[in-house]
Amino acid sequence: MLPIRGGLAAGALLAVAGAGLAGCAPAQPTAACAPIDEAGVHRLFDEWDAALQTGDPHVVVARYAEGSILLPTLSGTPRLTPESKIDYFEHFLENEPSGAIDDDVVSIGCDFAIDTGNYTFTFGTTSERVPARFTFVYEWDPRAGEWLIASHHSSATPEG
After folding, report:
1. In terms of Cα–Cα distance, which of 20, 24, 16 is closest to 133?
2. Is 84 left (phi over 0), alpha (psi -120 to 50) or beta?
3. What are the Cα distances from residue 95, in Å, to 16, 51, 92, 122, 138?
4. pTM
5. CB 85 within 8 A of CB 64
6. Alpha helices (runs of H) in the chain, residue ranges in sequence order
7. What is the pLDDT of residues 120-159, one digit of tens each?
8. Under CATH, what is the fold of the domain 34-156?
9. 3-class DSSP state for residue 21?
């Protein structure tokens, strides 16, 4: 059973997880799955947020896997290439964002993990706080020897 915090529906997460990722190659069987637990998934978010704190879009984009997709908070344009992600983060980082997870649900499979929930960005330039919803899909990249973001969707939380 998935742990539920903050009232998110586990059924919705399972529907997302079961739907698969468009454009991703099927998983190849491996002798063993890369180990990760819920705390490890939260560390991956912290590493992404720390990359934001550098102010360098190249450092942030290095957290994304080759062939990944970014559906960002403040743009309606899907970002599929490293160059398009850098373009987005060049503008996003101008406001000195810092993210914090408010509540989430973590699901872990063999060489992938999904973290879905709500987070809040605080922008250092204005102290504005923007609540948003997110889904991070992380995948183990054996070539890089690390967990990377395969899919990242973020959208401002609608009122009501």
Report:
1. 16
2. alpha
3. 31, 14, 6, 9, 26
4. 0.80
5. yes
6. 10-19, 38-53, 57-61, 82-92
7. 999 998 999 999 999 999 999 999 999 999 999 999 988 8
8. Nuclear Transport Factor 2; Chain: A, (3.10.450)
9. coil
